[in-house]
Write a structure and sequence with these properties.
By secondary structure, the protein is mainly α. Helices cover about 85% and strands about 0% of the residues. The two termini are about 20 Å apart.
Length: about 210
């Protein structure tokens, strides 16, 4: 269960690639401030992930939603995010950095949860995968189910730790890379994000219509 959950969540939550993107919002901060904001973003992402795991069944039942529908919607949103990053100018993320450098911390506070934590650090695609894992975590008995849920929660925690590391060390990593190198990395991350969105979308289509798409 651990391996399956990690392999399913890692490319969607993408703590490495998203760490590079979020790093643009934290540019110009001193080490202590960066670490403080990184900790808050990580805690927010962890709360969203664990909250989705804990309340997933209630949400699905309350709104009458099926997991394939969540996958289709999440895939569209992730794909759109990746496409926006791909079609935008190469200076989009550097412009965000300049905005953070030139404004007071209050503006960063406003953006801390949306869009920095959600949907950049953890979005609907991650939630749809968590819901899918949650649906497959039901075991033969309550103990088996509880263990599976705990394993999924552990995976979410580990991915958030990876995100925290990249957020706190982002300035050092990007500092070793040229401006053109940062643009290339951002475009690669955007393309992978777009592809992940398409895969989640088609997986949802396949489950909704009981066909093999991929």
């Amino acid at each position: 269960m651990f391996t399956a959950s990690f392999l399913a969540l890692f490319p969607v939550m993408n703590p490495v690639g998203n760490g590079f993107i979020v790093n643009s919002f934290l540019g110009g901060l001193d080490t202590d401030s960066r670490r403080r904001y990184a900790k808050r973003i990580t805690i927010n992402a962890l709360m969203v992930g664990i909250g989705s795991l804990a309340l997933g069944h209630i949400v699905l039942l309350l709104f009458g939603l099926a997991v394939p529908v969540i996958q289709i919607a999440g895939g569209i949103l992730i794909g759109k995010t990746g496409l926006d990053l791909l079609s935008g100018s190469d200076a989009i993320l550097s412009e965000d950095k300049e905005q953070v450098d030139s404004v007071n911390p209050a503006n960063l506070e406003i953006r801390l949860f949306y869009p920095i934590t959600f949907p950049i650090s953890i979005g609907l695609g991650s939630i749809s995968v968590i819901f899918t894992l949650m649906a497959t975590a039901v075991g033969d008995n309550i103990l088996h189910t509880a263990v599976n849920y705990a394993v999924i929660g552990l995976v979410i925690f580990l991915l958030c730790i990876i995100l925290f590391v990249f957020l706190t060390q982002g300035d050092r990593i990007t500092g070793r890379i040229s401006a053109n190198g940062n643009v290339i990395i951002n475009k690669m991350v955007a393309f992978i994000t777009f592809c992940i969105g398409l895969q989640i979308f088609f997986n949802g289509i396949g489950k909704a219509f009981h066909i093999t798409v991929l």
